[in-house]
Amino acid sequence: MNVIESNQLTKMYGKARGISNVSFSVKEGEIFGFIGPNGAGKSTTIRTLLALIYPTSGSATIFGKDCIKYAPEIKKEIGYLPSEVFYYENMKVIDLLKYSASFYKKDCTKRIHELAETLNLDVSKKINDLSLGNKKKVGIVQGLLHEPKLIILDEPTSGLDPLMQQKFFELLREENKKGATILFSSHILSEVQKLCDRVAIIKEGEIVKVETMSALTENSYKKFRLEAVNHVTSEVFQLDGVTDIMVKEKTVSFIYKGNMNAIIRKIAEIPLQNLWVEEPTLEEIFMHYYEKEE
Ligand SMILES: Nc1ncnc2c1ncn2[C@@H]1O[C@H](COP(=O)(O)OP(=O)(O)OP(=O)(O)O)[C@@H](O)[C@H]1O
């Protein structure tokens, strides 16, 4: 079953593009990454799914129900951590969390204290006195205290130190093992790689690619780097499957996907000093997608 299904979702801010024709689905039990540079449309997509803003056209379902029409009902089963959190500064953390819990029918007291302990959050403090990272932790506890079936996180790690990020990821993996589906938006590739099963890449408001993490990182792409005896030009490497060519005097690098024999034959035409064949970093793979349609 698909927990989220977005169908040609479009949001215009007046004449300005928010997102256009965004279609993707998140399966039950998945940790799904949503990745793209600043301004790509991640928050707009998430806010539309949560009915915090309304789509200009297109539609989406969550748990099989229209996300706008059934928003109040759907939201009871969602834990949401927005990219920026704002609180009543004078409140104590515990009072804020109890207030958040009061919107749900179950008793969340035990879970609040478990989560606070895992994240080293002192719930007796006033919001005012918390650092940025600790405020973020309040948001995390708030998002998870009712043990939601779907967790939606918009750039959740900003402000968390590396150790806390690790704890937070462990927490998310535990929730996922217990059955929660997770939508995780980020512009940090390495953290998406650590956590997610599948990823959608969004660029300038449009989904460029949806792919499993393993397919993206494992087999298909190779990075070639070679040092020729003489100067070379990029024309030599105009071959199907070659992208991201960079030439600097006698050195050439490019990303290749395709038949290995074809590229090796091409390289063999050039007198070489040295040759490296490497796994591209996730950055290089993603840059390739970002740039592809320009
Ligand atoms: N309230 C708004 N009014 C007008 N334009 C907006 C509004 N919110 C977002 N936009 C525009 O919509 C586009 C998508 O923005 P969005 O915040 O969804 O991107 P994002 O991928 O979440 O980026 P970031 O990581 O920087 O938050 C951007 O061009 C942005 O300027």
From TrEMBL:
Positions the record marks as coiled coil are none
Query: So where does this one cross the membrane?
Result: none
Q: Which residues form the ABC transporter domain?
A: 4-229
Q: Tell me which Pfam families the record gives.
A: ABC_tran (PF00005)
GO molecular function per UniProt:
ATP binding
| Domain of life of the native organism | Bacteria
Q: Which InterPro entries match?
A: AAA+_ATPase, ABC_transporter-like_ATP-bd, ABC_transporter-like_CS, ABC_transporter_ATP-binding, P-loop_NTPase
- What UniProt keywords apply to this chain's record, in alphabetical order? ATP-binding, Nucleotide-binding, Transport
- Kindly indicate whether the keyword Metal-binding belongs to this entry: no
As given in the record, the signal peptide range reads none
What's the family?
Belongs to the ABC transporter superfamily.
This protein is called what?
ATP-binding cassette domain-containing protein
